[in-house]
Design goal:
The protein is built from no helices and 15 strands. The protein is mostly beta strands.
């Protein structure tokens, strides 16, 4: 069945939100760009692959604390396997890169495995903890988005989006969703 498709729009929306928590009360989180827009993609320009990887986007994440604190982060959004839902069928993944705490490179651990080093990938339900305490954390957030090819089979222009929020949490805080 052939569908005449003029174009399909894609937008990834990341909303910044700070969670309540004992360790996070004296800290503030911000991102350089709370909305990442992939723009309009014309189906005619695409070859028929099984899935489509949209270009990697990057935003800057900053955490500023009034006093040295243990900084733990999670991203909450609708889970889709090892990533977060993008539209009905797609997925986006988030990875923290080039992280610095008070000017020093950050080593990440998972809250439930504090002795092991983590890669910096934010997975659904996972809390990443920066080893050590500090007042200022900065990291580049890489956003990788994939869609199955049939997600582009629509009659008119359609907006696909993924939503979620970064949360500062106490490293011991349970997942609230």
């Amino acid at each position: 069945m052939a569908v005449n498709l003029k174009s399909v729009g894609f937008a990834l929306l990341c909303v910044v939100w700070m969670a309540e928590g004992a360790q996070a009360q004296n800290c503030r989180v911000s991102v350089s760009q709370p909305r990442v827009d992939y723009g309009v993609i014309s189906r005619e320009a695409l070859v028929e692959p099984l899935s489509i990887a949209l270009s990697t986007r990057r935003v800057q994440l900053n955490v500023l604390c009034e006093e040295p604190s243990v900084i733990a982060l999670r991203f909450t959004g609708a889970a889709n396997g090892q990533g977060f839902r993008f539209g009905r069928q797609g997925r986006f993944n988030l990875t923290l890169k080039h992280a610095l705490m008070d000017g020093r490179a950050v080593e990440w651990t998972q809250a439930h495995l504090p002795a092991e080093t983590a890669s910096g990938q934010l997975l659904p339900g996972q809390v990443l903890v920066a080893r050590g305490a500090g007042q200022r954390l900065s990291a580049q957030v890489e956003i990788d988005t994939n869609l199955p090819a049939d997600a582009l089979h629509v009659r008119n222009q359609a907006v696909l989006e993924g939503q979620g929020s970064f949360e500062l949490v106490s490293p011991a805080a349970p997942r609230n969703r």
